[in-house]
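Title: Comparing notes on inverse folding

I've been comparing how different people in this forum approach sequence design from structure. To keep things fair, I'm posting one structure and asking everyone to reply with a full sequence. Here's the target:
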């Protein structure tokens, strides 16, 4: 029988690997559809709805943890060219995942906000996000802060990069002389669909980071589109 320390280490390793809901979904997709041939990052990105670079990050994280194997052999009938990097679940795969504490906290936050008036709930959610956004910006370091101070555009790019690192798969966009941040993936998951007010946390994070990264007049930060409202992706506009 494993010692208490070994058991704790095992649970910690599994939680680190599968703590992100997107990563869990990716692992299950590879397990159920990869077979012995494996799955490419592009196929995973199409299935999960994230940028291929985000899919590749999660796949490599799972491979580093020993949950996936990487194969580079060419598949019969694939034609000439460089072999595709494919991912296969190891023989002794994971069948169950520990409960993720973040999911419970988000669910609790959604239920708590639902007890407030809509205006108070949105204001509170946005302020929570803004406080976290300011802390995120402070953690970017001096170089990122200086780059962000050069222009609003560079500050927004720094925010998009930081959001992507936190699971939003975000990118900056400019259309009709208006700057936007588009999130192709929401780490809040189903909780945001059930409690759309949580989208204000996202808006607050953007506002909080920009207040630290940009010296000029920020203006109004608005949610232009969101998945809970039936849109394809979430957009924060300035």
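Reply #1:
Here's my take.
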């Amino acid at each position: 029988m494993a010692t208490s320390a070994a058991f704790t280490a095992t649970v910690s390793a599994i939680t680190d690997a599968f703590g992100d809901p997107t990563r869990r979904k990716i692992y299950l997709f590879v397990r159920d559809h990869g077979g012995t041939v494996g799955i490419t990052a592009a196929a995973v990105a199409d299935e999960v709805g994230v940028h291929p670079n985000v899919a590749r990050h999660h796949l490599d994280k799972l491979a580093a943890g020993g949950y996936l194997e990487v194969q580079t052999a060419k598949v019969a009938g694939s034609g000439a060219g460089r072999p595709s990097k494919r991912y296969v679940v190891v023989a002794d795969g994971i069948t169950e995942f520990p409960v993720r504490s973040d999911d419970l906290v988000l669910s609790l936050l959604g239920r708590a906000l639902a007890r407030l008036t809509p205006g108070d709930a949105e204001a509170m959610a946005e302020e929570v996000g803004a406080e976290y956004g300011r802390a995120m910006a402070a953690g970017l370091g001096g170089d990122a802060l200086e780059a962000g101070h050069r222009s609003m555009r560079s500050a927004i790019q720094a925010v998009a990069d930081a959001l992507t690192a936190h699971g939003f798969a975000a990118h900056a966009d400019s259309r009709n002389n208006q700057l936007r941040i588009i999130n192709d993936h929401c780490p809040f998951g189903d909780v945001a669909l059930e409690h759309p007010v949580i989208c204000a946390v996202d808006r607050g994070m953007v506002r909080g980071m920009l207040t630290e990264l940009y010296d000029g007049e920020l203006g109004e930060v608005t949610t232009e589109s969101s998945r809970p409202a039936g849109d394809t992706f979430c957009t924060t506009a300035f």
